[in-house]
Amino acid sequence: MNFTESELITFLPHFLDDELILISTEISLKVNSDPNEVRMHTNEISIQKEPIIESNLVVEKAIEINPIVQINSVSDPIIEVKKVDVLEEIIQKESLIETKIIIKKVIILVSYIQGVPDDVSESLYKIFEALNCPKSDIELINVTVSNPNLLASYQFQYLVLMGGKGKTLNFLADYTGERNILEVGNIQNSKVIFADKLDLYLKPENVALKKLFWNRLKSTIIN
Questions:
Q1: Phi and psi of 29, rounded to 5°?
Q2: Alpha-carbon Rg for the chain in angstroms
Q3: CB 48 within 8 A of CB 24
Q4: What's the pLDDT tens digit per position in 79-104?
Q5: What does the DSSP assignment read for the chain?
Q6: Cβ atoms of residues 169 and 182 within 8 Å
Q7: At 151, is the pLDDT very low, low, confident or very high (cuts 50, 70, 90)?
Q8: What is the rounded CA–CA span in Å between residue 220 and residue 131?
Q9: For residue 48, what are the β-bridge partners?
Q10: Model confidence pLDDT, tens digit, residues 36-73
Q11: Mean pLDDT in the chain?
């Protein structure tokens, strides 16, 4: 179908509407051999409606192109790991080890908040050495120190309490005997001796007290 230029200009506005899209148009004028005849040519004019894709078709297409593949993987069996309490494990290990018993002939308990004075410790060692108890057989424990040596770790023949009656010691909680000064009792097949604080015995004027203390130790502790 051939259009004159004026016809084409008149036709196109009526041909196009809002629902159509003009993709490409190329208009060319060719001059024939006959100068009086003008022929108009148009390349392919592709006009198409905007495609409307139904939602269900889109889903079906998506499923067709990208199918969902379910993979059944074999996983390793779940192993429940029991939480082991570190402290409990240490206690269990220590319970398997035989408690080492330290053998001492005499255990001396003193109570000095600021630490045992040198003159007190030296005097105590000299007194018991005079009773044939070398220093290696004596253990001096200051019960006011944090975490003092546990008496349960020792095996002893004599327990001497200097300046106290041991009422605050767990070790003597079950002791039912007398706790008088210079009293001698029995505890765990051993002897327990209650005495004054050594400071009293070190005073020069307390000669009578010194003799009582010495006689009690000599009559109790076997050489």
A1: -110, 130
A2: 56
A3: no
A4: 554 555 655 665 555 544 456 889 99
A5: ----HHHHHHHHHHH--TT-EE----EEEEE-SSTT-EEEEE----EEPPP---HHHHHHHHHHHS--------PPPP-PPPPPPHHHHHHHHHHHSPPPPEE-SEEEEE--TT---HHHHHHHHHHHHTTT--GGGEEEEETTSSSPPPGGGEE-SEEEEES---TT-GGGTT--S---TT-EEEETTEEEEEE--HHHHHSTT-HHHHHHHHHHHHHHS--
A6: no
A7: confident
A8: 10
A9: 21
A10: 554 444 444 444 555 555 544 444 444 444 555 555 55
A11: 73
Given a contact cutoff of 8 angstroms between Cβ atoms, the answer to whether 201 and 209 are in contact is yes
Residue 74's pLDDT is: 54
- The C-alpha atoms of residue 43 and residue 25 are separated, in whole angstroms, by 7
In this prediction, residue 86 carries a pLDDT of: 57
Q: Are 120 and 112 spatial neighbours (Cβ–Cβ below 8 Å)?
A: yes
Mean pLDDT of 164-168: 84
Return the closest-CA partner of residue 160 out of 125, 204, 136, 134: 125
